[in-house]
What we know:
The complex is a heterodimer of chains A (111) and B (115).
Chain A: E1 4-7, E2 10-14, E3 19-25, E4 30-38, E5 44-51, E6 56-59, E7 62-67, E8 72-77, E9 86-94, E10 99-101, E11 105-110
Parallel strand pairs in A: 2-11
Antiparallel strand pairs in A: 1-3, 3-8, 4-5, 4-9, 6-7, 7-8, 9-10, 9-11
Chain B: E1 5-7, E2 10-13, E3 19-24, E4 31-38, E5 42-50, E6 53-57, E7 64-68, E8 74-78, E9 87-94, E10 105-106, E11 110-114
Parallel strand pairs in B: 2-11
Antiparallel strand pairs in B: 1-3, 3-8, 4-5, 4-9, 5-6, 7-8, 9-10, 9-11
Amino acid sequence: KQEVTQIPAALSVPEGENLVLNCSFTDSAIYNLQWFRQDPGKGLTSLLLIQSSQREQTSGRLNASLDKSSGRSTLYIAASQPGDSATYLCAVRSTGNQFYFGTGTSLTVIP
Amino acid sequence: KAGVTQTPRYLIKTRGQQVTLSCSPISGHRSVSWYQQTPGQGLQFLFEYFSETQRNKGNFPGRFSGRQFSNSRSEMNVSTLELGDSALYLCASSVPGTGETDTQYFGPGTRLTVL
């Protein structure tokens, strides 16, 4: 069974810092990996989707990489802002078409 | 384009009752997936519907069921509610292709409390 792990569980950084969030998965048989953010009490907002054949995707200050063979993905956030404070979740879609989510990293950006 | 909508947003039920939640996907999206989110278990996949057929199912008991209508709207039903069913129920829609390009768009969720 696919297991998705996110480290660290919580992170606090001063505004302006660059940071990296990690996601690891145990089974490399995936279609894609998606990063989301979730604000308290709200649904999920899609940030980036990386197909299994891709190595990275970029959107604004966000860059996500995927190393399928090692079962790892990272989300890089440049020049962090207080508005980036949220819980960040990664999810993989297995080739069996099931979805598996990590437990999330709670990010706080201090002004 | 309107996003994914879920109704109701909040529900309070008692043990043993049943509940039906509704999800309207983004226009043109034909796949709807349901998830349960709890503090202890995180986000867990319930099932996915595509073209009125259940395409995938997570590891939940048969008390959890769903269906999809011809307009892609989906409902989820939980029978014989238990205290542990208290959770945020999220649905997501996507335009299914090969699986590689299926970005999921989430609704705001339905907060279910079982007393």
